[in-house]
Amino acid sequence: MPRQGDPLRRLGFLTIGLFDADNPAAGHEQTLRTIERAEDLGFDSAWLRCRHMQYGISSPVAVMAAASQRTSRIELGTAVIPLGLENPLRLAEDLATVDVLSGGRINPGVSVGTPMHYDDFKEHLYPDTHDVEDFSKKRVERLLYCLRGEPVSDFSGTQGFETFSRRVEPHSPGLADRVWYGGMRSSAIWAGRQGINFLSSSIVTIEGTDRTGTDPADFGIVQAGDIDAFRAHHPLGERARASQGLVLIPTDSATDDQKRRYAEFAAARLPRTKGPVGPRGMLISPDLVGPSDELAEQLWAHPGFHRVDEIAVALPFTFGEDDYTQIITDLAEHLGPALGWSPRSSATGDTA
């Protein structure tokens, strides 16, 4: 388990990929440029959110396919694909295809549960089965089964000029081991038992813990506990992969206008971090804004950060391309090194 002072091994970022409804191509191109820039800066990974019926990336697998052909080294992930809108077998085909095209760089993050606003579009999504669809974790198990190359058809062999396989094709060995699952304490334990990876975000809950959510330190303590519970139930134990995702906005090279807007953004969102919310006791981490040396001090004091050696910094939803460029540049050139991270070479994937 990483200890305070251990170097950060992997640095990534997470974006929603906003676009204008009247010109969606421009927003998607902006996201691809940001990923290309991140690879040039030595980032280890770029992660895409998934938003349906919104003005953000609705098809992260397609965007990863495009990014895979414009990059050579950076890993490409999703955080997360809601499986309630997916057929696991078909998704397995798409993910494996992109993984093959990328040279094995795909990290599929997934979630389950009833889709947001499901009642508003369920008859278009599942016209005949919307009342009986199973949105439980069984959907993840079906996806893993397909990605692992288990048989999904009773027929194989040649029929006429066509040859059929019993498993999902293409098969990409190792892809199932790169599946990630996000969530709270119970989900962390379940992910560990499945032998997959765990994404911990800027939201945790006190449900299943001994915390009240009233202590400012509770978020970090709960997050650390979630990661510990995940590893305690994972076959790899301490070596199991877990990632932390917080909103971190370094301001080392920011203009005065950017610093002002970033501070206003964080201040407007601060009230939602005051104490537990809802029946499950949801806790939300404050956004961290400031020079990289100050952010590094805050992270070294963060119990959740002590449990990981990789992070995926969440870029704020509503910022522009210039802001994203400044943020990821400062992450790579200032905050990452302050945490002991070293950039990777685009040509070789080695530390530069």
In short:
The chain has 352 residues and is of the alpha/beta class. The chain is built from 11 helices and 16 strands. It has helices spanning 24-41, 60-68, 88-102, 118-125, 138-147, 185-194, 218-232, 256-269, 292-300, 303-306, 321-338, and strands at 10-15, 45-48, 75-78, 81-82, 106-107, 109-111, 157-159, 162-164, 180-182, 197-200, 203-205, 242-244, 248-250, 282-284, 288-290, 310-314.
Going by CATH, the architecture would be: Alpha-Beta Barrel
The side-by-side strand order for the widest beta sheet comes to 5-3-2-1-16
The helix count comes to 11
Number of domains: 1
Structural class assignment? alpha/beta
Mind summarizing the main beta sheet?
5 strands, parallel
- The succession of helices and strands, N to C, reads EHEHEEHEEHHEEEHEEHEEHEEHHEH
- Average pLDDT metric: 96
Number of strands: 16
Supply Rg: 20 Å
Envelope shape: globular
CATH fold node name: TIM Barrel
Low-confidence residue ranges: none
Strand content: 15-25%
Share of helix among residues?
25-40%
Cα distance spanning the termini? 25 Å
- Give the C-level CATH assignment: Alpha Beta
Q: Going by CATH, what is the homologous superfamily?
A: Luciferase-like domain
